[in-house]
């Protein structure tokens, strides 16, 4: 009675039980799956990654073994998807080509985005270095990826190493700009000033506060960049700078089939369609992930 008259309520707030407390990662995944386009894109990306990882076990034959009696046979005549100019099974070549393409994309993303993230964080946190570092990134942005590929191939020779180096260098300035912009907004928050006032070390501040709050922007960029890197890598391989025959790679496979386009189109069309599907899936997944992680777009 006294609580009612005084207008106060001393009832403790209800705390959700542990079963009702959803981790952020699970909540993000549920919102992503609630979007039809995001769910389809995630499923396609998961299947592509699984096919690339288990290509040696899924392929019906080796990527180099072929029978010239089956050369350029159409789908259904020699295997499910036909054979190429050397009589090699197209299913095996596509699986191994996807494996090589994904390996190239993962390596370039890990190298380029790791370096770019460190540069972006340093440019945002240490203001005297910002001008020098970002002007250097502007210089790198002025060079197209194809030019990097040509220059590195001239030094190292054509191959996957040259393509990975070119794609890594081209990813550095883009990631640096994304991370710098996200880090500048985080550094304006009050808890960052409180941590600095408490004497927290720079490394601890980066690891516990700055980098985790930039992860949403990094995840969206990496997902979108995956599709771009796969397309650029396939383009470099298409013009002869990437994987060299007989290595299976989607871009080089599409280039190999140009000579047979009128009477055996499957040799070039199938790897080109696979590139299109993979790039579209990563781009759609990146857009859906951005909508899920951005509070403004979510509202």
UniProtKB/TrEMBL annotation:
Gene Ontology biological process terms from the UniProt entry: transmembrane transport
Domain of life: Bacteria
Positions with biased composition (Polar residues): 1-11
Transmembrane feature ranges: 37-59, 102-126, 218-240, 260-282
Keyword Secreted belongs to the record: no
A GO CC term assigned to this protein in UniProt: plasma membrane
UniProt keyword list: Cell membrane, Membrane, Transmembrane, Transmembrane helix, Transport
InterPro entries (alphabetical): BP-dependent_transpt_permease (IPR050366), MetI-like (IPR000515), MetI-like_sf (IPR035906), OppC_N (IPR025966)
PANTHER family found in the cross-reference section: OLIGOPEPTIDE TRANSPORT SYSTEM PERMEASE PROTEIN APPC (PTHR43386), PEPTIDE ABC TRANSPORTER PERMEASE PROTEIN (PTHR43386:SF25)
Full protein name: Glutathione ABC transporter permease GsiD
Naturally occurring in which organism (per UniProt): Bordetella genomosp. 2
Lineage: Bacteria, Pseudomonadati, Pseudomonadota, Betaproteobacteria, Burkholderiales
């Amino acid at each position: 009675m006294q609580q009612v008259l005084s207008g106060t309520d001393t009832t403790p707030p209800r705390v959700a039980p542990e079963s009702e407390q959803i981790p952020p990662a699970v909540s993000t995944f549920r919102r992503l799956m609630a979007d039809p386009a995001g769910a389809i894109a995630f499923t396609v990306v998961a299947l592509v990654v699984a096919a690339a990882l288990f290509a040696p076990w899924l392929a019906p034959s080796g990527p180099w073994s072929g029978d010239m009696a089956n050369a350029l046979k159409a789908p259904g005549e020699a295997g499910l998807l036909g054979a190429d100019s050397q009589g090699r099974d197209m299913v095996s070549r596509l699986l191994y080509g996807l494996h090589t393409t994904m390996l190239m994309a993962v390596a370039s993303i890990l190298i380029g985005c790791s370096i770019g993230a460190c540069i972006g964080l340093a440019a945002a946190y240490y203001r005297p270095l910002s001008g020098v570092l970002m002007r250097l990134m502007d210089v790198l942005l002025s060079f197209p990826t194809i030019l990097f590929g040509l220059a590195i191939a001239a030094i190292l020779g054509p191959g996957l190493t040259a393509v990975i180096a070119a794609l890594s260098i081209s990813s550095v300035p883009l990631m640096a700009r994304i991370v710098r912009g996200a880090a500048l907004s985080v550094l304006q928050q009050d808890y960052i000033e409180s941590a600095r006032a408490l004497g927290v070390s720079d490394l601890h501040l980066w690891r516990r506060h700055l980098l985790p709050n930039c992860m949403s922007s990094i995840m969206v960029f990496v997902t979108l960049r995956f599709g771009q890197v796969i397309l650029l890598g396939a383009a470099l391989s298409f013009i002869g700078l990437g994987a060299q025959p007989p290595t299976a790679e989607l871009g080089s496979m599409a280039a190999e089939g140009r000579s047979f386009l009128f009477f055996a189109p499957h040799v070039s069309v199938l790897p080109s369609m696979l590139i299109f599907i993979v790039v579209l899936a990563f781009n759609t997944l990146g857009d859906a992930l951005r909508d899920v992680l951005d509070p403004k777009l979510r509202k």
